């Protein structure tokens, strides 16, 4: 799941990366007028994998570059490879 502010270009980048890996993320866009507070203090864009907070865009790309993202997606059932 990707949660972001409406029109955020980085959420589109994140979504395209996940699509290119074979995942089909659920995207929730929050109005920039809404005040959203998360328990973990996470800023938007927030990425959840298997119900767990992965983090922001930086954490997603770090997991992808290190080779940890695909195993996490498989474990969560987001990939059928």
From TrEMBL:
Assigned keywords, A-Z: Cytoplasm, Redox-active center
Membrane-crossing segments per the record: none
SUPFAM superfamilies found in the cross-reference section: Thioredoxin-like
Entry's localization field: Cytoplasm
GO cellular component: cytoplasm
InterPro entries documented for this protein: GlrX-like_pln_2, Thioredoxin-like_sf
Principal localisation: cytoplasm
Family (UniProt): Belongs to the glutaredoxin family. CC-type subfamily.
PANTHER family: GLUTAREDOXIN
Name of this chain's protein: Glutaredoxin
Annotated source species: Ceratopteris richardii (Triangle waterfern)
């Amino acid at each position: 799941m990707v949660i972001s502010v409406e029109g955020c270009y980085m959420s589109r980048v994140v979504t395209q990366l996940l699509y290119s890996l074979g995942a089909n993320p659920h995207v929730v866009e929050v109005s920039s007028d809404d005040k959203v507070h998360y328990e973990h203090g996470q800023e938007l864009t927030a990425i959840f994998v298997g119900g767990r907070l992965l983090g922001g865009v930086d954490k997603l790309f770090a997991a992808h570059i290190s080779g940890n993202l695909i195993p996490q997606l498989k474990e969560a059932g987001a990939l059928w490879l």
